[in-house]
Amino acid sequence: MSETLKVSEIYRTIQGESSRSGLPCVMVRLAGCNLSCSWCDTLYAKSEVPREMTLDEILQAVAELNCRRVALTGGEPLCQPAAVELLGMLCEAGYETLLETNGSQDISVVDPHVRRIVDIKCPSSGSADANRWENIEHLTDNDEVKFVIANREDYEFASQAVRDHHLGHVCTVIFSPVWGTLTGAMLAEWILDDDLDVRLGMQLHKLIWPEKDRGV
Asked: In 3-state terms, what secondary structure has residue 72?
């Protein structure tokens, strides 16, 4: 019998974050997370009873949504060991495969064809102690690092991390403001004032569908 995963939702949308923002994408959201970030906007992925699906069932659900791009997200997908196998299967099936991970789990086990979008948690998240800094050694130019920023302290933390680890020479680096807390304009000013070569990332799905808090 195929391994199973606990799934929160599967849907087709416009990718709202990462360098693939604006492109059609199937989101496979797995349930459960090992962190409790203060600004989390997918709490339902932890609180609701998930659907248990085999890997074959997930692949079939993805195929029915007719999109060449798939993102595995959460919650925290790598908390479920079978997620690694699913990522490999998606790559083998020919999908452009993205992984959105909170940065606390080992990314070295993930198929190298996967575009790994790795959070580094800032102080305001309450989860900065969970950052797995060893992941930086495994990043390639196919990957991305994302900092979600709520205030100036977060910005200084993120900027220092970029400099200390030379992240701009390793992969794409994204600074994203916490929705409703820090404006994109303010974060953009800080980036420009410091001549920091990072990408400003807005949550495009929230701009397109501001009245919806899931399935987008």
From this structure: strand
Cβ neighbours of residue 41 closer than 8 Å, sequence gap 6 or more = 179, 213
Residue 22 located in a structural domain: yes
pLDDT at 205: 83
Instruction: Kindly state whether residue 216 falls inside one of the protein's structural domains.
Output: no
Q: Which domain holds residue 61?
A: 4-208
CA-to-CA separations, 153 to 33, 161, 203, in angstroms, rounded: 25, 12, 21
- pLDDT value of residue 207: 85
One-letter amino acid of 195:
D
Give the CATH number, domain containing residue 18: 3.20.20.70
Facing residues of 69 across strands? 96
Residue spans of beta strands (DSSP E) within 121-169: 144-149
Q: Say if 100 falls within a structural domain.
A: yes
Q: How many domains does the chain have?
A: 1
Cα separation of 118 and 130, whole Å? 13
- What is the rounded average pLDDT of the residues 200-208? 88
Residues 6+ apart with CB under 8 A from 58: 5, 7, 10, 28, 86
Long-range contact set of residues 189-193: C-beta below 8 Å, sequence gap at least 24: 190/152, 190/155
Report strand pairing: 24-30 vs 172-177: unpaired
- The pLDDT value recorded for residue 216 is 73
What is the per-residue pLDDT for 41? 86
